[in-house]
Amino acid sequence: MKRKKRVLTGVLAAAAVLASSMCTWAAGAKTAYTFTAEKVQMAVGAEAQPVLNSLGKAEDINVLNNCANGGKDKVYQYEDFDLYTTQNEAKKTIIQTIVLKNGAATEEGVKLGQTPKEVKAAYPDAVESLGLYTVTLGNSQIIIDCGLKNDKVVDISYEYYVPQK
Question: Which of 6, 39, 49, 68 lies 20 to 30 A from 152 at CA?
Answer without folding.
Answer: 39
